[in-house]
Amino acid sequence: MGQASVIIYITIAILILFLISHSPTTTKPAHHRHRRLKLRSNFSFSDHSKPTHIPFDPIVADIERKREDKLWEKSQFKLDEGAAKGDESQPEWEDFMDAEDYLNDEEKFNVTNRIVLLFPKIDVNPRDGFVSEAELTDWNLKQSERETLHRTQRDMEIHDKNHDGFVSYAEYDPPSWTRHSDNDSFGYNMGWWKEEHFNASDGDGDGLLNLTEFNNFLHPADSGSPKLLQWLCNEEVRERDTDKDGKLNFKEFFHGLFDLVRNYEDESHNSSHELDDSLDAPAKKVFAELDKDNDGYLSGTELLPIIEKLHPTEHYYAKQQADYVIQQADADKDGRLTLSEMIESPYVFYSAIFNEDEEDEYEDHDEFR
Ligand SMILES: *[C@@H]1O[C@H](CO)[C@@H](O)[C@H](O)[C@H]1NC(C)=O
Ligand SMILES: *[C@@H]1O[C@H](CO)[C@@H](O)[C@H](O)[C@H]1NC(C)=O
Ligand SMILES: *[C@@H]1O[C@H](CO)[C@@H](O)[C@H](O)[C@H]1NC(C)=O
Ligand SMILES: *[C@@H]1O[C@H](CO)[C@@H](O)[C@H](O)[C@H]1NC(C)=O
Ligand SMILES: *[C@@H]1O[C@H](CO)[C@@H](O)[C@H](O)[C@H]1NC(C)=O
Ligand SMILES: *[C@@H]1O[C@H](CO)[C@@H](O)[C@H](O)[C@H]1NC(C)=O
Ligand SMILES: [Ca+2]
Ligand SMILES: [Ca+2]
Known about the structure:
By secondary structure, this protein is mostly helical. The chain has a domain of 179 residues. Helix content is 51%, strand content 1%. It contains 18 helices and 2 strands. The chain has a two-stranded antiparallel sheet with strand order 1-2. Helix 8 packs across helix 9 and helix 8 packs antiparallel against helix 11. The longest helix has 27 residues. The radius of gyration is 27 Å and the shape is extended. 22% of the residues are buried. The structure holds 2-acetamido-2-deoxy-beta-D-glucopyranose (NAG) (6 copies) and calcium ion (2 copies). The site of one 2-acetamido-2-deoxy-beta-D-glucopyranose has 6 residues, from helix 9. Pfam families: EF-hand_7, EF-hand_8. One of its GO terms (molecular function) is calcium ion binding. Keywords: Calcium, Membrane, Transmembrane, Transmembrane helix. This is EF-hand domain-containing protein.
């Protein structure tokens, strides 16, 4: 009896020692446990610029979408009061609690469990136990495309006046905030909403835009459509073409476009804009490379090679966010993420979405519940 209990005690002691020596140091992640997640609360319904953060988690995206729709409905209701009434079906999140409380209730929304669930959906190409930059970029892109399409769908409800699922040019009524642009001397409106733009979006040329075409209309750089990319390039020329000869001379290029292009080049420049022989040499070089027919001017077509630099695509932002997140969470610095690396730094994925001011991400700024 006594011997047996001694053996049991020794066994337990060994077990405890084993557990202590093998337990991961949990002090660091513990700091992150109580970071309060925030939903993006600030939507601009008329602004088609890129979202600053792509939601990582579809559940969060879904909550944000519902909340955004709700705000949108309210803003529409204010615009045409009396049009819709009585439809009081509320998003389920608002029925039982504030969505943010839900997200911060660790029993209901456990970020560790979420990451365990999402990991195999991201690690797909190839499925090898590592999330690569390309896989995370694809994931981000998918989330961001879904969000974009959802907004387009909502915009379409406004413009498709006869509700046939298509937007005709006549139906498309430019929102008032676009009308500030002055008529230019050529007599055409420099705004986004030209008929040429509409026609370039009309893939099958039936004079109507379906959802896909309307989405391309709103996001030409992401459309992948040669017609729309060409239109976008022509638009760039029009915007910079100060002497109105329909093409860009070196001066128009240097003052309008070169800054945007060279941000992506790996050169260090002085930011002087003086047309000085020594300072504009890099600009002259780029100009000469783009000027394929050597006529001393750039046409819309000649801008095609740099249009992605002028209008970064959703893919560009998706990759940028993937790079940032990997850099933050990649503990062993092999350039890719394992499941345990992701679990160790869950709020890198979530705070990249929620925190409006990214610089404040240190522990002393944490909000405790
Ligand atoms: C939205 O954000 C901007 C700046 O980010 C701020 O000036 C504005 O007040 C916010 N609007 C609402 C409704 O919170
Ligand atoms: C989240 O779930 C994991 C695994 O199921 C569990 O170990 C952890 O304690 C949970 N976290 C919280 C804060 O409830
Ligand atoms: C633009 O031109 C239209 C007619 O083509 C005219 O009605 C409108 O007042 C002009 N707007 C400006 C800002 O000049
Ligand atoms: C757009 O296409 C329609 C035919 O679908 C045509 O009548 C119109 O002139 C075109 N407009 C422009 C600016 O190309
Ligand atoms: C819209 O029309 C295009 C052809 O221009 C077609 O490829 C696409 O599938 C259509 N999209 C929808 C949602 O019907
Ligand atoms: C930038 O200007 C400084 C002096 O203003 C000069 O010393 C330097 O060489 C210039 N750099 C380049 C890349 O031209
Ligand atoms: Ca993989
Ligand atoms: Ca219609």
